[in-house]
Amino acid sequence: MYLRAKQDTYFKKSPNQASVLSEADKVLVASGQTIDIQYYVDLGDHWQVVLAAPTLGDSTTLTWFVYEPDVELKSSVTLTVTSDTLFKQEPKLSSQLNNAQKVLVKGGTQYELLSYLPAASNHLKITLAGANLGPDKRHTWYVYQPDVKVSGSRQELKVVSDTLLKSQPQLSSELGASDKVFLKKGTTFLLNSYGEVERNHLKVSLEGAFLGAQNRNTWYVYIPDVEVAGNLPGNQPNDTASSKQLASPKDLGKAMRFPGLSTVYYTNYPIIWKTQNGEPGNFTWGEATHNGTRIPEHKNVVYGIVRVAQALEDIRQLYGSRAITINSWYRPKAINAAVGGASLSRHLQGDAVDFTIAGIHPYDVYKRLDGWWGSRGRIG
Questions:
Q1: What does pTM read for this prediction?
Q2: Of 37, 248, 267, 284, which has fewest CB within 10 angstroms of its CB?
């Protein structure tokens, strides 16, 4: 992770004004200088940064504080404005916003992005890396998606509640001091990858950050305490379900047997036999297994499919009678690679699903589900 000085600034041993610090407690960093850091903690007007190597001051100190408006993070994600557009403080029609809530940006303009997410009404929510626009010098804006193009990849792990990195997905009381590292709320890392989930912990591989007594970069972290932002490199899956399966026990469909389980499953049977409202389930084993052509490799995949089916039933309840179309659910390794899925895709475990809801833009579905979903997993 690289931090660049936007103007001459001080890196300090405490988050105080440079004028009250001794010369030994501050280092002047020139405008344009780039510093390699392991991670940073957002403290508001200051960032606490941990250097990748002790290259400043006495050449022994790794942890410094810097005034946030004076620095910017370098990013490999680029936003290109393809036609004149407006950056807005809310994802609304420009006519619904006053002049202070929008900024005109010319076609051809490029910005580096720290992050971007879907937002309502076919907008993107973007966080600029090193650019502050408008009278309030904001770096987070909304932009109409057809007016821009995003390229590159970047993944961040953001700590949203004080937490611990752990060597194993266990209670902190079960681990020794060398097997856990405390993290403050606001800490942000770049990620190499993230993958398996165990006991509500996410396994993460940090980019350029080596922590703890053993200088580890691979850890487990409690899922409700963190957020993953960004996009997986090369994750452009092109996979579509073979057909829409209707839950119809009268027409059993194709019989299937799964490893480690004695039950016979049928493609037209609902995964959830009855919903919490007492109604027949709406999603079938055929939809999860591509009409019975993708047999789960072990029973944990089956359990993953059941968890996702329950979530889909809850989502369908939110949207009433609107049809939900499954585009991709379980993908074995060979198929996941063939269709361009990420190497650590949750589709491999059966507990990820791509779907659309009839008549509603995917960005609007994301906006509604994001807050409702909470800590149960990730929505993209």
A1: 0.76
A2: 248
